[in-house]
Specification:
The structure holds 2 protein chains of 2 kinds. Chain A is mostly helical. Helix content of chain A is 73%, strand content 0%. In chain B, helix 7 runs antiparallel to helix 10 and helix 13 packs antiparallel against helix 14. Chain B has 14 helices and no strands. Chain B is flat, with a radius of gyration of 25 Å. The longest helix of chain B has 36 residues. By secondary structure, chain B is mostly helical. Classes of the chains: A mainly alpha, B mainly alpha. Chains A and B meet through helix 1, helix 3, helix 4, helix 5 and helix 7 of A and helix 2, helix 4, helix 5, helix 6 and helix 7 of B.
Chain lengths: 332, 332
C-alpha cells in the first residue's frame, strides 16, 4: 500500500507535517526502547545464574525448593556456592502442564469449531458462540479460585484413595492440587481462545471447496475434515502456538492449583502421577517475588523469566511461520 | 447417494422436520469413524457451552449470596474471621484506578505508534522493528513484565514514584508503577486494532483529502482518526478487560495491601499514585486458600464483581462492533 505524499508548496504546512511525523514517531520509538530494555534487562539480571551454573541449571539435581530457600536466607551478598540451581523439576512442571493442556485444548477446540461452523443448528450456534466468548473473557484468577475451592477438594475427596496417599506419604503429600487439577483448569483457560481462532480459520475456507467434495458424494463430516480442517491446518497450529504462550506464562492461577511444590511428577507412578503436586516456572516467580532483595534468588528468578521470554520468542516466530502456507492460498 | 446440502448461511434459514429426516437417513450411511467424529464435535461444542454456563451460574449464585451493597461500599478490615474482614471498596477502586492509569499510558502510545507505522513508516526498518517489538510484548507473560518492572522501580532514581523506606531503600510498588506496567498488556491490543483499522481505510480517501490541499497531518487528524475511532474503541476495551483481569502485576507491583495506602508527605492525588493498594484480582488471590486471607466467601463475591466488570467491557465491544457494521454500510 503506497500513498503519494502531498506536494504542497507552503513551507508552514511542511513544517507542521514534519512536526506531526516526529510527534507520532516518538511513541513508536518509545515502545521499541521499552521492550528492548525489558529483554536486555532480564538477561543481564539473570547473568549470575548462567555464569555460576552454566546451562546445568536447566538440568536435574537436588531439591530446588531447598536451593531457593538457601538463596533467600543468604541475603544480599551471597557466596558463589549459593547460586547453585538445578531447576529441572520446575521446567518439567511447565512442560507437563502446558503440554497436556495444549493437546487436550487443541482436540477440543478443533471439534468445537467444526461443530460451530458446520453442524450446530442455528439456534444452538447462537448460544455456543457467546458462551465461548464469555469463557475467553474470564480472568485467570477466577479459574484459579474455582480450581482451588471446587475442583481440587473434589479430586481430593473422590479420586485419591487412602492407599494412594499412604503409598507416597514419605515422599509427597497428596492433597488435591496437582497435575490433574492444573491441567484441567489450564485447558479450560486456553481452549476458548483456540476455538475462536480455529472457527475464524474454518470460516475463511471458501465454501466452494467443501461443496465440491460434497458434490462428489463425500459426506459432510468427511468434507469438513479432509478439506476445511486440512486447509486450515496452519491456522490450527498457529492457534495452538498462541495457546501455548498463554499457558507457559500463566503464573497466579497455577500458583493456586498446582500444589506449589518444587517436585517433578513421575509418569511411571501410574495413577498417582495425576495427583502429584508440582510448580511451574511462572508460578515460582510469582511465589518468590517478595524476596527479590536476595541477590542469588533475584538472579534465579530472572533466569526463569529469561527462559519464558526465549520460549515466547520461539513461539511467535513459530506462529508466524505456521501461518505462511495459508497466505499462499490467499486466505488471510 | 443422498446428501443434505451444507449448512445454509446465516439469514437463509430453511430447517424444519424434513431436514432432520434427511439427516437421519444420511447418518445411517456414514462410516463409524465419521460418526465418532460427528459425535465428538457435538460433545465438544455443547460441553464448552455447558461449562461456561455452569461457571457463570456457579459464580453468580456464590457471588450474589455473599454480595451486598454494604460489602461493596465498606472498606476492608484486618481480621481473622471472614465476618470481620470488612468490604471490598478499596479493591474495586483499585481495579478502576488500574484501568484508568494503564489506559492513559497505552492509548496515546498505541495509537501514536500505529499511526506512525502505517502512515509514515511503510517499508522503513524502524516500522518493522516496532511491529516485531509489539509482537514480542504481546507474547510476553505478564509475570515477566512484573518482575522486570520491580527491578527497575526499586532503583534509587525511581524513588519519586513509590515509597522510600527509612534506610533509603526504594519500595518500588505503587499505583503509578503498576499502572505503567499494565499499559504494556493493553498496548499490543490497542496498537493492532488501530493498525488494522488504518490498513482498511482505502487510499482514495487519503488522496481525496490531499487533493483538497490538506496536509498529511491534517488528514490524519480530520479524516483517518475519526474513521478508525471504533477500532481504537474496541482495542481499548479489550485492553481494559485484560488490565482488570491481570493478577501477576498487581501482586508484585502494587503491593497487594489490604487497603489503599497513600504515600505520606505528598500532595493529594500524587500521594495516591505513589501509594500502594490492591485490586479485585489480588483480593481474590489473597482471600483464596492460596493466599494468606483464606476468606472464600469474600473471594467469591469479589470474583463475581470482577467478572461483571469484565463482561460489561465485552458488551461494550460487541456494541461498538455492531454499530460499526451499520456505519460501514453508510460511509463506504
Amino acid at each position: 500500500m503506497t500513498h503519494t505524499t502531498p506536494r504542497v508548496s507552503r513551507t508552514a504546512d511542511e513544517d507542521a507535517d514534519r512536526r506531526a511525523e516526529l510527534l507520532l514517531r516518538a511513541p513508536a520509538v518509545a515502545v521499541l526502547l521499552i521492550i528492548a530494555a525489558i529483554v536486555i534487562g532480564v538477561f543481564i539480571t539473570a547473568w549470575p545464574t548462567y555464569h555460576h551454573n552454566g546451562l546445568l541449571w536447566l538440568g536435574p539435581g537436588g531439591d530446588v525448593d531447598r536451593q531457593l530457600d538457601s538463596m533467600i536466607n543468604a541475603g544480599a551478598n551471597p557466596g558463589p556456592e549459593i547460586f547453585k540451581l538445578r531447576a529441572w523439576s520446575l521446567i518439567w512442571a511447565t512442560v507437563l502442564t502446558t503440554g497436556f493442556a495444549v493437546v487436550l485444548g487443541t482436540i477440543t477446540a478443533v471439534l468445537a469449531a467444526i461443530f460451530i461452523v458446520e453442524f450446530a443448528p442455528k439456534r444452538v450456534e447462537s448460544i455456543v458462540v457467546p458462551m465461548v466468548r464469555l469463557l475467553a473473557a474470564v480472568p485467570s484468577v477466577i479459574y484459579g479460585l474455582v480450581g482451588i475451592l471446587v475442583l481440587a477438594p473434589w479430586i481430593n475427596d473422590h479420586l485419591i484413595s487412602a492407599a494412594d496417599r499412604k503409598s507416597v506419604e514419605y515422599v509427597i503429600p497428596l492433597t488435591g492440587p496437582g497435575v490433574l487439577a492444573s491441567t484441567l483448569i489450564l485447558t479450560m483457560m486456553i481452549t476458548p481462545i483456540m476455538v475462536s481462532l480455529v472457527t475464524e480459520a474454518l470460516r475463511s475456507i471458501p465454501r466452494g471447496w467443501r461443496e465440491g467434495s460434497v458434490a462428489l458424494g463425500v459426506n459432510r463430516w468427511r468434507a469438513m475434515w479432509s478439506v476445511s480442517v486440512k486447509a486450515a491446518r496452519p491456522a490450527i497450529v498457529a492457534a495452538g502456538v498462541i495457546a501455548t504462550a498463554r499457558a507457559l506464562g500463566e503464573a497466579i492461577m497455577l500458583a493456586m492449583v498446582s500444589g506449589g511444590k518444587g517436585f517433578a511428577p513421575q509418569p511411571w507412578d501410574g495413577k498417582i502421577f495425576f495427583f502429584e503436586p508440582l510448580r511451574p516456572l511462572a508460578a515460582t516467580i510469582a511465589n518468590n517475588a517478595e524476596s527479590l532483595n536476595s541477590a542469588a534468588l533475584r538472579s534465579s528468578l530472572y533466569a526463569f523469566a529469561s527462559l519464558l521470554l526465549l520460549s515466547s520468542f520461539a513461539l511467535s516466530v513459530g506462529a508466524y511461520m505456521a501461518k505462511q502456507p495459508m497466505r499462499k492460498y490467499g486466505l488471510r | 447417494m443422498t446428501s443434505v446440502p451444507l449448512k445454509p448461511r446465516r439469514g437463509s434459514g430453511t430447517g424444519g422436520p424434513s431436514r432432520v429426516a434427511i439427516l437421519r437417513r444420511e447418518l445411517s450411511e456414514w462410516r463409524i469413524i465419521d460418526l465418532i467424529g460427528y459425535a465428538g464435535a457435538w460433545i465438544a461444542g455443547t460441553m464448552l457451552a455447558l461449562i461456561a454456563f455452569g461457571l457463570l451460574a456457579f459464580l453468580a449464585v456464590k457471588g450474589v449470596s455473599y454480595l451486598s451493597l454494604d460489602l461493596v461500599a465498606s472498606r476492608p478490615e484486618p481480621g481473622i474471621d471472614q465476618s470481620q474482614t470488612g468490604g471490598i471498596l478499596d479493591p474495586v477502586i483499585g481495579t478502576l484506578l488500574m484501568i484508568l492509569i494503564g489506559t492513559a499510558w497505552a492509548l496515546p502510545l498505541g495509537v501514536g505508534a500505529a499511526l506512525w507505522v502505517v502512515e509514515y513508516g511503510k517499508g522503513r526498518r524502524l516500522a518493522r522493528a516496532v511491529e516485531s517489538a509489539i509482537e514480542v510484548v504481546a507474547g510476553m507473560p505478564s509475570i515477566v513484565i512484573a518482575i522486570f518492572g520491580l527491578a527497575i522501580s526499586q532503583m534509587g532514581f525511581m524513588g519519586l514514584f513509590s515509597i522510600t523506606a527509612e534506610g533509603g531503600a526504594v519500595f518500588g510498588r505503587s499505583f503509578l508503577i503498576a499502572g505503567t506496567a499494565m499499559s504494556l498488556i493493553a498496548l499490543p491490543l490497542i496498537f493492532s486494532a488501530t493498525r488494522e483499522g488504518l490498513l482498511t481505510v482505502p487510499n482514495h480517501i487519503r488522496e481525496a483529502s490531499y487533493a483538497l490541499g490538506k496536509t498529511q497531518a491534517a488528514t490524519i487528524r480530520r479524516v483517518l482518526l475519526p474513521s478508525v475511532r471504533s477500532n481504537i474503541g474496541t482495542g481499548t476495551a479489550l485492553g481494559m478487560g485484560r488490565i482488570a483481569g491481570d493478577t501477576a502485576i498487581i501482586v508484585i507491583l502494587l503491593g497487594a495491601t489490604l487497603r489503599i495506602q497513600p504515600a505520606e508527605n505528598a500532595p493529594p492525588l500524587v500521594d495516591l499514585l505513589r501509594g500502594t493498594g490492591s485490586t479485585l484480582t489480588s483480593y481474590v488471590y489473597n482471600n483464596s486458600p492460596a493466599g494468606e486471607g483464606n476468606a472464600p466467601d469474600k473471594a467469591y463475591a469479589a470474583g463475581f464483581v470482577l467478572l461483571v466488570i469484565v463482561l460489561l467491557l465485552n458488551f461494550a465491544i460487541s456494541a461498538v462492533l455492531q454499530r460499526r457494521g451499520k456505519g460501514q454500510e453508510l460511509t463506504r
